[in-house]
Design brief:
heterotrimer, A mainly alpha, B alpha+beta, C mainly alpha, B: alpha+beta, eleven-stranded mixed β-sheet, four-stranded antiparallel β-sheet, C: 10 helices, 0% strand
């Protein structure tokens, strides 16, 4: 078991290292003069040159690269050109908002997706099954940013139940979390339904029924328990993905988390923030995957052999 | 179609319900002011130190503003974006300030003594004015502040505005620590010596970037002075939470008696326009600057009687134009540029700004001295435009590239221009890049046509001419060059007779428009939306609102 | 193969039979086909010029006007006809989606199958590479590349393909691996069939069917990616309409002119739905081991 963990951990570190390098290269390639972002539209050429010097942009790329690696290992993700403060500070400031949205989103996904999936599987081909699966199809097909806009229109303007955006308490959190919940829940519902159906028709379930087990016990003890596994994986991946900042939803709802921060940095060419947030997002996913893999291997020993 | 019908029915119903519901919410505003019956003070007259009516408006309270971005810096020498500018207005003051159509003494005791040749300016400072940290201001502080702006280590964007002072360029180049032309003969006197007569010099001293800062505070905080700013302005720095808010508290010792009237002003940051508007309508935010009002909602707000007292309009000193790279063929041909001027429908462009713009036919906005309302060098005439193109030897199939940044209005205007030019057979390819990238490309001369703008920071045509139209001027992004204009500009800078001076600027405008350096589009109409409980709202295009003159009616 | 007069029962004819019975897939196919036809015929079907702003298309205050007799779906912020833009936008969105996805599938097939078949260090390198790429949220990667390259339609397609192939490659790699272990392959090997024979006779047909499924299903994802990029302002260049950019332009008008976002959004959703249904149907038809 320990050898497996160590192997996976080292693999994760390798991936993180490559991520850092790739993001650095991407950032270096972005064609923008950060001096302009600092000096503003009226700064003249001489002043821009002075700023460039001050920011250390004249140095050769490999020097910048090693500086960058050194800083990151110390937890310093650079300094924002536009906000004049550390990227790590910015991320830490925005993290609670993103985390709140991530957890709320996953919660709603599960709350909506799992019951629907189970109902659809158990009462297969019934009216409810068809209705729910149709709904789920729409949930999967709708572009996430558009879904958010439609919900904004319906529930903040036509029926002013919610505020139109900004970070705040539950009333501000609900709509963006609900948007995530709808889209993700649809996926979960469909997945759960199909895996449960597969299991319910499997041989060992037939055996269990033949043994005299009640339908309810069959459902809970065999179908649900086994069908849940892929859901667990997906939850882990979702959480990892959301913790990196769900850009589109955060932008539409002005939910000022890491995703919105990243988006503003892209528009303003604030490269340190772009690199820092992308790195953070990627690392979050990798770490979450690692955690999920560990959990999985604890539950299912066969996985350790891969 | 049933779905659509019920959609619209629901829309109608909710449109009736929504205002009813919202108006109920807006009524409960309990201001923190004391219950004193107040008189309506009149708007401040045009005088250096506006007074407030004797019975006095209600003291106390706070005003909140919402911005999308953080101030780029709270350091007087570095601020340039909208929230920063507002912060500088709160925190700092200096020798001069704009009032009416010119700069007038503010911390200076009186108008300066100017030598007959116009080269030496001697100012006396009002004694007894204190910084926010309690220390009295001396002439030496002004010298320090201006030398600081010139300091290459600081890399202030405003440094080149001071180069008419003798020795200033040396400081920028790193050859000197201080400008030779700034002298402090005694505790309350400061003397400037210029390299050539410059009628805009007093305007420069009214620029917030050149306002006074205390040496000991700057040295104490170093690069972080912007996080602990100290000045002589009506408000003191209280708190800055990046991405969230900046809070300013009343300066009880402000050197204009009776100001500020409110206790506190807060700038909310990171709010996007739609959210800001909603909070404004709900009364959670007091003031919105024009850009924070989404274009989509503008017509509705302007026509809503409820908001009649909420909208404050000022003609601004912003101008927008279609820039033309005068060095790149075929735009190096005057006839082609003139054809473009004839082909573009300015009125249509203005219509697309949804009320935020007024047509611009020349170079100067209406509030700029030298503006000639009868000056209309080009009228929309596609037939004449085509003929002009023909004269230049070009006809159908001309292809041009239009570079824009990432604003939505820019995109809309670009497409309108594209359509206009298509009418005369010119194909326009729109290239959109990030805002800062666009600025860089334009400055480097890589763009052919581009949307450009300038906000004047002094009520003086020199701000435009010297920065945009003189050969090799710092922001001459059209790469326009006409030695005749250069000569007139130099003359006008030193011309002490105001009427003669204005005439010179009018002449220059005629020449530049005849040369068709670019295509003027519109001048901004600035709007502020403020909660009606705010009284005495006053704003100037070069600065923004003066919060120290406002009070809150309970 | 005919064996003594029995019916032709190849993979394909079986699949076709199953597909014909699947009503959902049929619905999806009809949707997709209709959209493709509309997209192809847009220049003739559209009632107005998509990029022309009509003076009558703007209200008195310069805003968009709601659906009426002349402009069936209303006009946008520049007075352009929404319906015409929708039709022309279909061309762009479908083009980017289909070609982008096709390219991605191609790359994924080549790399994924090679990795699985050849094995060894090549496989390790390729799979590690996909690991890293998968860590990046696809949208962010596409955004970063768009910012660097500032593309037109052609490069946009390449970017989307480059970002999307990773996900497919892993799946294909896994499938080829499992096909290798399957009984009939082992049987073929035991008979003494050469690698090439195994490849062409057994692996490739399965791969092709997988490829078809992903080529269909993936269009939905690539279309959404293009829409997201255009919505963020990083995709299609002005003034060309794409459904994503139309939603972006109409975003701040969601209160006063909701049709600006409803129309393109619904079209996107419908298209994605259609391709999903068709893809699901193809998968069910082509893979007999899946029971639904």
């Amino acid at each position: 078991m320990t050898r497996y963990i160590i192997r996976r951990f080292l693999g994760m570190l390798l991936v993180i290292f490559v991520i850092l390098t790739v993001t650095f290269i991407l950032a270096y390639l972005i064609p923008a003069d950060p001096a302009r972002a600092v000096g503003g539209p009226k700064a003249n050429a001489q002043t821009l040159a002075l700023i460039r010097q001050d920011l250390g942009l004249d140095e050769p790329i490999y020097v910048q690269y090693f500086r960058y690696l050194g800083r990151v290992l110390r937890g310093d993700l650079g300094t924002s050109f536009v906000q004049r403060r550390g990227v790590t500070d910015i991320i830490l400031q925005r993290l609670p908002a993103t985390a709140a949205l991530a957890f709320a989103g996953v919660l709603l996904e599960l709350l909506m997706g799992i019951p629907i999936g189970i109902i659809s599987a158990v009462w297969q081909r019934s009216f409810w099954d068809r209705a729910f699966m149709l709904l789920a199809l729409f949930g999967v097909a709708a572009p996430p940013f558009w879904l958010g806009l439609v919900l904004l229109y319906l529930f903040t303007y036509r029926l002013p139940l919610f505020p139109t955006g900004g970070v705040g308490g539950l009333s501000h959190l609900f709509l963006p979390a609900f948007t995530l919940g709808l889209a993700g829940g649809a996926w979960y519902a469909r997945m759960l339904r199909s895996s449960m159906l597969d299991i319910l028709q499997a041989d060992y379930v037939r055996t269990a029924r033949a043994k005299g087990l009640s339908e309810q016990a069959v459902l809970v003890r065999h179908a649900l328990r086994n069908a849940i596994q892929p859901i667990v994986t997906m939850v882990g991946m979702d959480l990892g993905y959301y913790l990196g900042g769900v850009l589109l939803t955060e932008v539409v709802f002005s939910w000022h988390g890491i995703g919105k921060e990243m988006w503003q940095a892209v528009t303003k060419m604030d490269i340190p923030v772009v690199v820092g947030t992308v790195t953070f997002a990627a690392v979050a996913i990798v770490v979450m995957n690692f955690v999920v893999d560990l959990l999985y291997s604890a539950i299912d020993p066969r996985v350790r052999l891969t | 179609m049933t779905r659509k019908r019920s959609c619209w029915l629901a829309v109608v119903v909710s449109m009736v319900m929504v205002p009813i519901l919202l108006s109920g919410c807006g009524a409960t505003q309990a201001p923190a002011a004391t219950q004193v019956p107040m008189e309506q003070a009149t708007q401040p007259a045009v005088s250096p130190t506006p007074t407030v009516a004797a019975a006095g408006p209600v003291q106390g309270g706070s005003i909140t503003v919402a911005f999308q971005d953080d101030p780029n810096s709270l350091d007087a020498a570095l601020g340039y974006n909208l929230p920063a500018w507002q912060s500088l207005m709160n925190l700092y003051r200096g020798l001069m300030i704009y009032e009416g159509d010119r700069a007038v003494p503010d911390m200076a005791a009186d108008w300066p003594e100017i030598s007959p040749a116009g080269l030496v300016y001697t100012f006396k400072i009002k004694p007894g004015i204190k910084f926010h940290n309690g220390r009295e201001v001396e002439a030496a502080d002004f010298a320090y502040s201006l030398n600081r702006v010139l300091d290459p280590e600081l890399a202030s964007w405003a440094n080149y505005y001071l180069i008419s002072i003798a020795g200033a360029q040396d400081v920028i180049d790193g050859k000197a620590e201080e400008a030779a032309g700034i002298e402090v003969p005694d505790k309350y006197t400061i003397r400037f010596t210029l390299t050539a007569p410059d009628m805009t010099f007093m305007n420069i001293l009214a620029l917030p970037n050149n306002w006074v800062v205390p040496k000991e505070e700057v040295e104490k905080w170093g690069k972080d002075f912007g996080l602990h700013p100290v000045g002589t302005g009506p408000f003191m720095f209280k708190e800055y939470v990046p991405g969230e808010k900046v809070v300013f508290a009343k300066n009880p010792d402000f050197f204009h008696a009776g100001q500020p009237i409110i206790d506190e002003t807060t700038l909310y940051l990171g709010v996007d326009p739609s959210t800001a508007l909603l909070r404004e309508e709900k009364g959670e935010v007091d003031v919105l600057f024009g850009d924070m009002i989404p274009t989509a909602d503008f017509p509705r707000l302007m026509s809503d009687p409820k908001y009649k007292d909420w909208m404050y309009q000022e003609s601004s000193m912003y101008t927008w134009w279609l820039g033309l790279n005068n060095k790149k063929p075929p735009l190096d041909n005057k006839l082609v540029r003139q054809a473009l001027n004839l082909a573009i429908n300015t009125e249509k462009v203005v219509k697309l700004t949804a009320g935020k713009g007024a047509p611009l036919y020349g170079l100067y906005p209406a509030s700029c001295p030298g503006f000639d309302p009868s000056f209309r060098p080009y009228t929309y005439d596609p037939v004449a435009a085509k003929a002009r193109l023909g004269e230049a030897g070009l006809g159908e199939g001309l292809q041009l590239e239009l570079l824009i940044g990432d604003g939505t209005l820019e995109a809309t205007l670009a497409q309108s221009i594209q359509q206009d030019l298509a009418q005369i057979g010119v194909t326009v390819d729109i290239k959109q890049v990030a805002g800062t990238v666009a600025t860089d490309m334009i400055t480097a001369g890589e763009a052919q046509m581009y949307l450009n703008d300038w906000y004047m920071i002094q009520p003086d045509a020199a701000d435009l001419i010297n920065n945009l139209y003189m050969t090799d001027a710092g922001s001459n992004q059209d790469f326009y060059s006409n030695p005749q204009v250069d000569e007139l500009a130099r003359q006008a800078l030193g011309e002490q007779n105001r009427d003669k001076r204005l005439q010179l600027y009018r002449d220059m405008e005629k020449i530049i428009m005849e040369d068709a350096a670019h295509v003027p589009l519109y001048t901004g109409v600035s709007f502020y939306m403020h909660n009606s409980r705010i009284q005495g709202f006053y704003s100037r295009s070069e600065y923004g609102p003066f919060f120290e003159r406002m009070w809150i009616q309970p | 193969m005919e064996v003594g007069g029995r019916e032709h029962h190849s993979l394909w004819s079986d699949a076709w039979r199953r597909l014909k019975k699947d009503r959902a897939a049929l619905a999806g196919a009809i949707i997709c086909l209709t959209l493709i036809i509309v997209a192809l015929l847009a220049p003739w079907l559209a009632p107005h010029e998509p990029n022309l702003g009509y003076a009558e298309g703007l209200s008195d205050v310069g805003g968009p006007i709601s659906p009426n007799a002349r402009f069936l779906l209303g006009t946008d912020t520049l007075g352009r006809d929404v319906l015409s833009r929708l039709m022309h936008g279909a061309r762009v969105s479908l083009l980017v989606g289909i070609v982008g996805n096709g390219l991605a599938v191609l790359i994924a097939l080549v790399l994924g199958a090679t990795a699985a078949f050849v094995g060894g260090w090549l496989e390790a390198v390729i799979m590690r590479f996909t690991d890293v790429m998968m860590a990046f949220p696809t949208l962010l990667l596409a955004m970063a590349l768009s910012v660097i390259l500032r593309p037109g339609i052609d490069i946009l397609i390449v970017i989307i393909a480059l970002v999307y192939w990773v996900y497919l490659a892993r799946i294909i790699h896994g499938r080829v691996l499992s096909i290798k272990e399957m009984d009939f392959v082992m049987a073929a090997r035991s008979i003494g069939d050469t690698q090439t024979r195994i490849l062409t006779r057994h692996v490739v047909p399965h791969l092709v069917s997988e490829a078809i499924v992903y080529a269909t299903l993936g269009v939905a994802s690539t279309m959404l990616m293009e829409a997201s990029l255009s919505f963020l302002g990083l995709g299609i260049r002005l003034p060309t309409a794409s459904w994503g950019s139309m939603i972006a332009e109409g975003e701040s008008y969601y209160r006063s002119a909701p049709w600006l976002i409803l129309a393109p959004g619904l079209m996107l959703m419908l298209t994605v739905l259609g391709f999903n249904l068709m893809g699901d149907g193809l998968r069910d038809a082509l893979d007999p081991q899946q029971r639904r």
